[in-house]
Design a protein that fits this description.
The complex is a heterodimer of chains A (399) and B (99). Chain A is built from twelve helices and 15 strands. Chain A is an alpha/beta fold. In chain A, helix 1 packs parallel to helix 6. The mean pLDDT of chain A is 96. The longest helix of chain B has 6 residues. Chain B is of the alpha+beta class. The chains are: A alpha/beta (399), B alpha+beta (99).
């Protein structure tokens, strides 16, 4: 029987622990709250000789991603980490990393983008770069952060995918909260990660290649189509690796988690730490006889639309929780994807978008109960005119 | 060159053949054309050293001409030329074409 290696770690420390076991060839580092402690901890591992990583301290996040791109193009297993405005500053190179098909893994500790300046959690940072060509895995708790990081390396490096992966987790709520989790033994983790042999390397002088040449009207389009193909392969690969990780650890992963959803009439869709709170509310409502359920999205990019539409099959009303805003759009980023996924299924389901938790505004069980209460009415009457609601907002329009 | 489809090329914009810029003509980008005067030239090779695109052609260690299929007309060769008046003069392509 398997004996669990029990750890008490914050989300940041759980990430540093996973990175210690991965022992990346290169880690580039620039601090930003709430990611800073993650790199503090990893820097300790470097200083203590726990890893052989080349640890590169840079002068900005733009440089952190640029150095990671250079390292990955040289054939190294490269990682970095950031939050919010740091991600915004590296955005140019974030897009380039995916375009060059470099399997970089980057934990992103979700934090609200300035301004006004704010250091607490929302998803405006990672949702803002959902179309950069990176795979995005969202995490509910520190255990998932740890597990997602270890899987992300395999997903990114899979020859059918070869795309960088962002593992996101909620700033402070997860990054600074200690939880009990299970870790792999070092030998298990090393064996799981395996060796990485890049197909191309800038350092291979016997067979030199060019990275990042000018690519105009004649070939850019073809290269984007290849990138789309990599993303289209990703759902299968994420699922295969999630299954294999389950066999190793006892914790299987899929593209999303359906929690008491099968016969649910009122369904909430969410991602990140709020899913944990929502599960408690779902259990309470179930005890009271309400058929409530949760669909927790793990893989937002790629977005498994057909499977999600299927999983929401029995819902009479769906509440989509968005911890970010898509200004000027008909709802938040998750809301739009859910609506698009259900288009053409021939089902009339009332859908309401709940924007919540911006700038770290607490998302309590009461807030989630309010959302479910709203869904009861939607189930009876269909999608209302006020289908974008603001959960926990003070003043007019807040619920 | 026949352009290939998206399944027929390396991913990510990688170019597998080293030195293939020679087969990709970029001379049409040029606004100013360097005109080399073999009589005035002292073969100091500064233009050859400074050219960012290997467009100064050599033969037996001496300047032999300019590769107009690849020269983009940046003018560095003319700028670096130490001869007075310069052995490489930049002329507007439109003016050269009229003649």
């Amino acid at each position: 029987m398997r004996v669990a290696r029990r750890l008490i770690l914050t989300g940041n420390d759980a990430t540093a622990e996973a990175m210690r076991q991965i022992d990346p060839d290169v880690v580039t580092c620039f601090p930003i709250t709430p990611q800073t402690e993650l790199m503090h901890k990893f820097a300790e591992h470097v200083a203590d000789g726990d890893v052989k990583t080349e640890f590169v301290l840079v002068e900005s996040e733009h440089s952190a991603m640029s150095a990671a791109v250079g390292a990955a193009a040289a054939g190294a297993r490269a990682m970095t980490a950031t939050s919010a405005n740091g991600l915004a500053l590296m955005w140019e190179i974030v897009y380039i990393a995916a375009s060059y098909r470099l399997p970089i893994v980057m934990p992103v500790v979700n934090r609200a983008l300035s301004g006004p300046i704010n250091i607490h959690c929302d998803h405006s940072d990672t949702m803002g770069c959902r179309d950069t060509g990176w795979i995005q895995l969202y995490s509910e708790n520190a255990q998932e952060v740890y597990d997602n990081i270890l899987q992300a390396v395999r997903i990114a490096e899979h020859p059918d995918v070869l795309l960088p992966v962002m593992v996101t987790f909620d700033g402070f709520i997860l990054s600074h909260t200690a939880e009990i989790l299970e870790g792999l033994e070092d030998a298990e983790a090393r064996n799981w990660i395996g060796n990485y042999e890049a197909k191309y390397s800038l350092l291979n002088t016997d067979d030199p290649v060019t990275f990042g040449p000018l690519d105009l009207q004649d070939y850019y389009f073809e290269h984007k189509r290849q990138e789309i193909e990599g993303m289209w392969h990703a759902p299968t690969v994420i699922r295969e690796i999630g299954r294999a990780y389950g066999e190793l650890s006892g914790r299987p992963y899929d593209l999303f988690e359906a929690y008491r959803l099968e016969d649910a009439e009122l369904a909430v869709v969410a991602l990140g730490s709020t899913c944990g709170t929502t599960k408690v509310v779902v259990d309470e409502l179930r005890d009271q006889g309400t058929k409530a359920g949760l669909l927790k999205i793990r893989s937002f990019r790629p977005f498994p639309e057909a499977e999600i539409a299927e999983a929401l099959g029995n819902a009479k009303a769906i509440g989509v929780l968005d911890r970010s805003v898509s200004f000027g759009a008909p709802g938040g980023p998750v809301h739009k994807e859910i609506k698009a996924a259900l288009y053409g299924t021939g089902r009339e389901i009332g859908i309401v978008n709940y924007i919540y938790g911006l700038g770290g505004r607490d998302m309590s069980m009461d807030n989630i109960k309010t959302a479910f209460a709203g869904l009861e009415k939607v189930a009876r009457e269909g999608t209302p005119d006020d289908n974008i609601r603001f959960l926990g907002l003070r003043g007019e329009g807040g619920v | 060159m026949k352009e290939r489809g998206w399944t027929e090329i390396p991913i990510g914009g990688i170019i597998e053949d080293a030195g293939n810029a020679a087969t990709y003509e970029t001379g049409s980008w040029r606004t100013y054309r360097p005109i080399w005067d073999s009589e005035a030239c002292i073969d100091c090779l500064r233009c050859w050293v400074a050219c960012p695109d290997s467009s100064i052609e050599l033969a037996d260690g001496k300047i032999a001409g300019i590769d107009y299929d690849h020269c983009k007309g940046c003018g560095i060769c003319s700028f670096e030329c130490p001869v007075d008046p310069k052995a490489i003069q930049m002329k507007l392509e439109t003016d050269v074409a009229k003649k």
